[in-house]
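Appendix B, example 12.
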Amino acid sequence: MSNFMMNMISWVLLLLVILTLYLIDKVNHLAAMYEPPKPEPLPEPEAPPAGDLLFAGLEGKKLWDAMNGKAVQGFDTSLLDSLRPHYEPILREHISATFKDGVDEASEAEAKTPSSQRQIDTVRGHVQSWLPPQHLGSIYRTGVEFGGAYAKDPNPDVLARLKETLDSVTTMLYQRVGVPLDVPYSELLLSPAAEPEPTADDMLALTDQSDQAEVLEGMPDLAAQELAQGLEHAQEYEEQQRQDLAAAHDAEVIEVNAAQAELKPV
């Protein structure tokens, strides 16, 4: 093989090596420029709401037992007694929410059983409250009947029975936890019976042409006096209007007569 061919082969091999190195460098450069898409960050799990530090370690039935005077390990009796005034809003909210559930679900065909445990929000966080199921059932059924049958057909006897049931159950709950009940729940949750519509015999009637006011039975004295004064003012105003009209009419007649007198020949 001639020297010329050897040189050609050497140059071709050299060019191939250079080309290979160039391609490798180019690939590395492109790889460095490419940024793979960043994975989307997973949403952080929501932190559970903070519990009420005042009742830390006391929740559910354990809290109910503690308020009932039962000994709870790790809690002094004097400490539990000091918590009773703070427990009353929790008890009130649990009772009121259960009654409202009954009213809201009164139209449902299938009867439900209220849960004994309910999360109650406080200004310091939340507390898991627990109440005896038999008492909650009575409160819930009272709400169902109040929002259902009684709402469709108000009956004073039914309302009295509902009030008695609600007050007896709630009074028992308050007595068990040793908390005073200042206002009966029948006044808080059961609206008073609808007042009957006033009849004609209870209204104030204006009489005949004499324009005199007659106060019928059932009207308050103060309202009657105010209406009588108003009628008197109206009469005075009408009389003044009649006098003004008469004066205006007389003045108009005088002007007409004067004009006719001027038109007559002398």
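Residues 193-224 have pLDDT under 50 and may be disordered. The first strand starts at residue 117 and ends at 122.
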